[in-house]
Design brief:
With 405 residues, the chain is an alpha/beta fold. The chain has a domain at 6-56 and 115-187 and 281-404: FAD/NAD(P)-binding domain (3-Layer(bba) Sandwich). Helices cover 37% and strands 27% of the residues. It has 12 helices and 21 strands. Strands 6, 7, 14, 15, 16, 17, 18, 19 and 21 form a 9-stranded mixed beta sheet that branches. Strands 9-3-2-13-20 form a 5-stranded parallel beta sheet. The protein has a 4-stranded mixed beta sheet with strand order 1-12-11-10, with no helix packed on it. The radius of gyration is 22 Å and the shape is globular. Residues 399-405 have low confidence and may be disordered.
Length: 405
């Protein structure tokens, strides 16, 4: 460790999607930002590093458009023009379309490979005049001072020290630094499920239609990806999910076809499968001159695609809070500047977590009366435009967008 500490307004630990989004938003507001990411560009570019396809809400598209990032990824983003919701073995179904939202948008959201978005965000932050990316680099130690934190960082070129009045933890809870920063770590409840992720081809055009099909084991989602290709998110019992992930290509597509049916066409050519554990949990995001965002602050079930969009709204709201503090000359890391942000995020996180967990409980129940009630509810949504609009505003980020206007 050589030389005097480098001075920044904000230091972000974790350069994943949430951390890089925050760095892009802060740099646009001329807030001097350090983004520290452990994985190298080469590691993050590998398909196996992050196999997810992210379902971005239209609110997310607006955020990235304002930051100037959307134009870099729009060519690889597949619009979602309709969502087909069904409950296997029951008569109820609902179709949600962009026009049902009552807005001028022509898409409910977009599907984008996570690594494509991550690479675009890192390029954008590196080009910003008020940001610096330390990658690959790791925070080895943090030292608390009265008005700032000092971060000791190791990197291939040698160690360095950074100093900032506010530290943002955006590492997904993996660094083990939360306790040192005074942040209560999320205590996730593990679901007895895994999600199997992959891509499959199909012999019919998808026309931008996404599917959320609830089965007795859990939801099976198909997200429109490239032409005649879907991203699959198949949730199920942990033992069955591991078994499916290990199946041959032919056996996997056959089992997927049986579980989903023929509505989307015939499946084939699956990519490599990966199984991810599912959890739920949230924590108070504030520490001592520190705040957590994204999965470091909360984890929700992937049903309805709320997880990353919730983390992006963390980043957008925190950036707005810090820009206001900068305009008013207030201390970035002061408790007063962050309390209202934390309270608002706790409320939204509780709503989203309760909504997704409730969906799982209701739609995975094997109770026959509850199954009949689910069918009636889906049929009611299909026949009632105001109900469609309410559901879309809750799940596609439109209420969050209206709140910021």
């Amino acid at each position: 460790m050589t030389g005097a500490p480098r001075e920044f307004d904000v230091a972000i630990i974790g350069g994943g999607l949430a951390g890089a989004s925050l760095a892009a938003a802060l740099a646009a507001g001329e807030i001097k930002t350090a983004l520290i990411e452990a994985a190298s560009d080469e590691e993050r570019a590998r398909p196996e590093f992050d196999a997810r396809s992210i379902a971005l809400t239209d609110d997310a598209r607006r955020i990235y458009t304002q930051l100037g990032v959307w134009k870099q990824v729009a060519g690889e983003a597949q619009p979602i023009r309709e969502i087909h919701i069904s409950d296997r073995g029951h008569f109820g179904m609902a179709r949600l379309r962009a026009e049902d939202a009552g807005t001028e948008t022509d898409a409910l959201g977009h599907v984008l490979p996570a690594r494509v978005l991550g690479a675009a965000l890192h390029r954008h932050v590196r080009a910003a005049a008020h940001a610096e990316v330390f990658c690959p680099a790791r925070v080895r130690e943090v030292k608390e001072h009265e008005q700032h934190w000092e971060l000791h960082v190791s990197a291939p070129g040698g160690g360095m020290a950074l100093r900032a009045p506010l530290v943002v933890l955006a590492d997904g809870g993996r660094s083990g630094l939360a306790a040192q920063l005074g942040i209560a770590e999320a205590e996730p409840k593990a679901y007895s499920q895994l999600a199997v992720l992959c891509q499959v081809s199909v012999d019919l055009d998808h026309h931008g239609r996404a599917y959320e099909r609830f089965t007795r084991e859990g939801p099976l989602a198909l997200l429109p990806s490239a032409a005649r290709r879907y991203a699959v998110v198949w949730t199920g019992d942990a033992r069955d999910a591991k078994r499916r992930a290990a199946l041959s290509d032919e056996d996997f597509t056959a089992e997927l076809q049986t579980a989903f049916g023929d509505r989307a066409g015939a499946f084939g050519e699956p990519s490599a499968r990966r199984a991810y554990p599912l959890r739920r949990g949230r924590a108070h995001p504030l520490g001592r001159r520190a705040v957590s965002i994204g999965d470091a602050a909360h984890v929700v079930h992937p049903v309805a695609g709320q997880g990353f969009n919730l983390g992006l709204r963390d980043a957008a709201a925190l950036a707005e809070t810090l820009r206001a503090a900068a305009r008013d000359g207030r201390d970035f890391g002061g408790r007063a500047a962050l309390e209202s942000y934390a309270a608002a995020r706790r409320r939204e996180t509780a709503r989203v977590s309760g909504f997704t967990d409730g969906l799982m409980r209701v739609f995975c129940s094997r109770s026959r009366p509850l199954g009949f009630a689910r069918s009636l509810a889906l049929a009611g949504i299909e026949l009632c435009p105001p109900a469609k609009r309410m559901l879309l505003w809750r799940t596609m980020g439109m209420a969050a967008a209206r709140a910021r206007e």
